[in-house]
Design brief:
Structural class: alpha/beta
CATH class: Alpha Beta
Largest sheet: 8 strands, parallel
Number of strands: 8
CATH topology: TIM Barrel
Helix content: 25-40%
Distance between the termini: 11 Å
Strand content: 5-15%
Number of helices: 8
Strand order of the largest sheet: 1-2-3-4-5-6-7-8
Number of domains: 1
Length: 273
């Protein structure tokens, strides 16, 4: 099995302001490979995709340096200013573990992702053979529909199910947008980050299953990819809990565990098995 979404960071309180001291105190510290490997081993996870959390080229280089030292990091989704004319580091284009890029769109104002310069940058990395991870809140999905329409010839993946409002059990409007988005054949859906969109201390399997149903119905078992979102999701669930929920769900619904927990990740990010 492969975890398609995890982070590493060296905690910096002035930079990492999104980690609220009152509610996220447990993750306001460094997280590195030594913290993750035992959890992976316990759950039989053989590899991961390390995804950017900071908007800097230094972040990309930091993740690549970790990937060079640790074989289990199979790929890196980094950051670069996609509105600029070219990649910040030309050597990145030949790095074997740099598979794609992401921008924290959930923090940007309306219209940012439709900026022609941003669209052009996403299209450019697509032509260069890179993927793009879409990180947004559910209320941004109508804008994502427009964004995807302009980038439909390249590999895209929607992080964290598009962050549905599981906590308030809002489903119908998000479901409509997911159905629309799934019509783009190059767009995948990452089944990650669910527990932190639910009530952190009272979610259940039954809380999450309807949202997984929407994703599998819309995107099918060939375009859904498992991810945990470590260490963020430790705020609401252990690594083992999330893996067990996903395996239980796939088994109960008769969905291919091999595809969702491994093969689709390898295919989307262009990795060898």
């Amino acid at each position: 099995m492969i975890d398609a979404h995890q982070h590493f960071w060296k905690f910096n309180p002035s930079r990492d302001e999104w980690m609220d001291p009152q509610t996220m105190g447990s993750i306001r510290r460094d997280f590195g490979p030594a913290d993750l490997v035992p959890l992976m081993s316990e759950c039989s996870i053989r590899g991961t995709i390390a995804v950017q959390a900071d908007q800097s080229v230094e972040e990309t280089e930091y993740l690549l340096s970790i990937a060079e030292q640790h074989a289990f990091v199979m790929g890196v989704v980094g950051w670069t200013d996609l509105r600029a004319g070219s990649l910040k580091r030309p050597t990145w284009s030949g790095h074997p573990k740099l598979v794609g890029f992401r921008h924290v769109l959930q923090s940007e104002p309306t219209g940012f992702m439709l900026d022609p310069n941003f669209i052009s940058g996403v299209q450019r990395i697509g032509r260069d053979g890179f993927t793009y991870d879409i990180l947004v809140y559910a209320h941004q999905l109508p804008e994502v529909v427009q964004f995807v329409a302009q980038c439909s010839d390249q590999p895209l993946i929607l992080d964290h199910l598009g962050k549905p409002e599981i906590r308030t059990q809002k489903l119908k409007e998000w479901q409509v947008h997911m159905s629309t988005l799934s019509q783009c054949p190059t767009l995948y859906c990452k089944l990650s980050g669910m527990v932190t969109e639910a009530e952190w201390h009272s979610w259940t399997y039954e809380t999450l299953a309807p949202y997984l149903d929407v994703c599998l119905t819309s995107f099918g078992e060939d375009r859904c990819v498992f991810g945990y979102d470590w260490p963020v999701c430790t705020l609401a669930a252990s690594y083992r809990q999330v893996v067990e929920v996903m395996i239980r769900y796939l088994n109960e619904r008769g969905v291919s565990t091999q595809k969702v927990m491994s093969d689709n990740c390898l295919k989307f990010y262009g990795l060898a098995s």
